[in-house]
Amino acid sequence: LQVVESGGGLVQPGGSLRLSCVASGVALDNYAIAWFRQAPGKEREGVSSISSSGISTNYADSVKDRFTISRDNARNTLYLQMNSLTPADTAVYYCNTWPAPNWGWGQRTQVTLSS
What we know:
single chain; mainly beta; six-stranded mixed beta sheet
């Protein structure tokens, strides 16, 4: 199993990014998956989750109406569209199974909001 997150970067407040999580060695459509993030000095938090079929999604209050999670099971890929970014969104972002992260953590992708 290998999970590779990408799409992070340096962005100005109000900007957008689209994160991707590509899995190999496992069929993503067997799992509910989530995006997690961890900011410096803070605990890891679940940002958004999506059911194995993609029908059901959930969001943390802090990102609701700004972030959109989606998945393409044919491509074994999970996405997170992030709009209206704020400095509070600065963190390292990961994907993993939901509700319990059962996979090893991937290479992660850094999202940084410039001042």
